């Protein structure tokens, strides 16, 4: 695996971890009835998910560039 792909996977994992933290916070705020705070954390979680997907796409492209040549 190329360094570029490995780095992209690590960045994706970091964003997935952050997304999970924000989803957990959103759940806590929903349970407490603080829906505005819950929405903020849910929105932030979705942003991290978007970043993670972007990094995963970069890793896939790197893999294709490295292994897709014939």
Concise account of the structure shown:
The chain has 70 residues and is mainly α. Helix content is 89%, strand content 0%.
Shape estimate: rod-shaped
- Judged by helices, strands and strand pairing, the structural class is mainly alpha
Helix content: over 70%
Separation of the first and last Cα atoms = 17 Å
How many whole angstroms does the radius of gyration measure?
Answer: 16 Å
Tell me what portion of residues adopts beta-strand conformation.
under 5%
Number of helices: 2
Number of strands: 0
Largest sheet: none
Report the order of strands and helices.
HH
Which stretches are poorly predicted, pLDDT < 50 over at least 5 residues? none
Rounded average pLDDT: 94
Descriptive account of the structure:
- The protein has 70 residues and is mainly alpha-helical.
- It is 89% helix and 0% strand.
- It has 2 helices and no strands.
- Helix 1 runs antiparallel to helix 2.
- The longest helix is centred in the C-terminal third of the chain and has 33 residues, at 35-67.
- The mean pLDDT is 94.
């Amino acid at each position: 695996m190329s360094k570029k792909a490995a780095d992209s996977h690590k960045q994706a994992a970091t964003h997935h971890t952050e997304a999970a933290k924000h989803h957990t916070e959103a759940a806590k705020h929903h349970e407490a009835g603080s829906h505005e705070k819950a929405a903020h954390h849910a929105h932030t979680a979705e942003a991290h998910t978007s970043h993670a997907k972007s990094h995963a796409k970069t890793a896939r492209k790197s893999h294709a560039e490295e292994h897709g040549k014939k």
